[in-house]
Amino acid sequence: DGEIEFDDVSFSYDNRSTALNGVSFKVPKGSSVALVGESGAGKSTILRLLYRFYDLKEGEGRILIDGQNIKDVTQRSLRKAIGVVPQDCVLFNTSIGYNIGYGKFDASSEEIEIAAQGAQMHDRIMSFPDGYDTDVGERGVRLSGGEKQRVAIARTLLKNPPILLLDEATSALDTSTEKDIQKALQNLQRGRSSLSIAHRLSTIASADVILVLKNGQIIEQGSHRELLAQD
Ligand code: ADP
Ligand code: ADP
């Protein structure tokens, strides 16, 4: 399971402007779809609707997971089926290992270790985030952008959902981090259906399908190779 389908989805936040306008696409089970387009094109709205931050009204189309309309799925099972990897994750002033296990209190140390390994963070389980400082409490935790994203990836590996929503950081990462992230993302996406707001060329190039959005509509779609061939 894990097939996603948007069927003629239109959405407006305020009834005046249109955030999405007749968007239809499928993410076949186990495949990766990358959303690209300028700011305001509708990428985040697609992820928010799939996660049901907002619900579609009558006549605004349908969103299906494995053929079932998500409005008929309980929030609880939807959250179980979908793992969200945000641009930036909340970190606590404690070890990286504990941060990875956060939210899954029944995880064994072995499970945490495997997840950390998948996210290329196994050498840091016992260490504390940079900037760790008992004096400043939880606000003192600091990691590089790439490390933060790998903690988020490890958390999601631990959760093990069939569907992934990824919001890639726009900030530039140094090349060593970039390699680690790429590997971690590959490990995470293997065997899962994923929908990404893609900023890195590596993510765009490795996606099975790229959807180019503009003003709430899909204006082009295809593999990286197909889209390059059109120009
Ligand atoms: P992200 O892209 O990181 O998810 P946001 O969700 O904050 O960032 O915003 C995405 C886009 O939606 C931005 O272009 C922002 O200006 C716009 N936006 C966010 N909230 C509102 C709002 N309440 N009213 C109008 N536009 C908004
Ligand atoms: P992207 O993720 O591609 O930057 P969004 O999906 O965030 O684009 O935004 C699509 C459109 O919806 C934009 O015109 C944006 O300003 C608007 N928008 C986004 N979030 C909100 C919000 N919370 N309230 C009102 N308008 C919003």
TrEMBL record:
Family membership noted in the UniProt record: Belongs to the ABC transporter superfamily. ABCB family. Heavy Metal importer (TC 3.A.1.210) subfamily.
Domain of life where this protein originates: Eukaryota
Domain ABC transporter: 4-231
Residue span relative to the full protein: 624 to 854 of 1084
Protein name in UniProt: ABC transporter domain-containing protein
Organism of origin: Piloderma croceum (strain F 1598)
Subcellular location, record wording: Membrane
